[in-house]
Fold these 2 entries.
Entry 1:
Amino acid sequence: MIREICKDERFLAQKAEPAGPEDLPIAADLLETLKRHKGGCVGMAANMIGFNKRIIAFDNEGVDMVMFNPEIVKKSGPYQTEEGCLSLAGLRPAKRWKSVKVRWQNEQFQERLKTFSGWTAQIIQHEIDHCEGILI
């Protein structure tokens, strides 16, 4: 189901709760909503559609990907950039890392670990910030 984009900064500033198998329908809605906004959006977190759960969906080099309970375990190559967000007005400055190693669970809740770099790493960092309640 395509969901409305949440713009309530008080809600968005909350740290997300861990996700479990019962949250698979939220991930499906997140993917559908991301696809609906493909023209101007490359990633979304569950709180952007009104669910305070640690789930992100993003464009991983042309393939949509979902992560449950993602966390950055290693980062390198800091840089400054500006980012926009469907939930927040305008562009905002952000410190990002060129490379991030991420631990997460897939749709079967199996743990995964992978290093991402470049644009994909930036997208993941933005969405994990949403999970942490960080408003860039």
Entry 2:
Amino acid sequence: MPQRSSWSVDDVPDLHGRTALVTGATKGIGLETAKVLASRGAVVLLGARSRIRGAAAQAQVRGQAPRAEVIVVPLDLADLASVEQAAALIAEEHPKLDILCNNAGVMGTPLRHTDDGFELQFGTNHLGHFALTGRLLPQLVAAPAARVVTVASQNHRMGRLDLDNLDGRAGYRRWRAYGQSKLANLLFAFELHRRAQAGSLGLTSVAAHPGYAGTDLQRVGPRMEQARTRERAVMVANRLFSQSPHAGALPSLYAATAPDVEGGDYVGPDGPAEVWGRPTKVSAARQAYDRELARQLWDVSEELTGVRFDLPVPAAS
């Protein structure tokens, strides 16, 4: 059992003078994360695929934090050109970035490929965020104590990294592919911590997972296949068993702002099986800490995205 926690949004510190980017900020956990960061005084950049949904989210955040500076950044993580454009726009307007919340994702989708030919879940959940973080590294390093929070999932435990079939063309199982993408999130977060540490950078890389939060994420796969019965079943399960998106955002907020967070930490709910509860430090599956696997994933990710981090490779332990 994780250690019990009493942490809440009331514990989020004052964030005036800090800039945060939240991907997937138009709904669900990303939107709730953005609302709290803005209410504490941060300049909040909302990563949004749709300008219309971005404007709607901007209005919602400003409704909760009327004095906040809230900016919509067009960003499609399934398109590396969009990632590059978004990073360039951010770099032009914001010389430093204090918080990067790699939150956006897709789940349980049928076999689809991104504009760059990547399997959709791996391409969006991992490669898009890998490329975004790498392109924003100068702005993160420019901040005095930046944090990168990568949102994973308990489903990483069923993931196995198949480096010979990352595109799904040699066989595809949607939930195994989702687990693979979430395992990749953790391998990346922990390896980024090790490389930042090896480079003596004031950059903290951590991961978080929301438990079971009832958001639109669970409905994406059934909608793509027009599987209405499955979509209705998901909606019923969400109503019966999930916690709210606000509660699901607490681990991300803790990871992004709590003073006791250290590089390589993993934050999730403190309840049974980490399904619900308040945020606390938890442990990932053993394979998420596999340094050789993380190094292999890093090399493949740089090759696939064309984005290389100016960071030293940590010594083998």
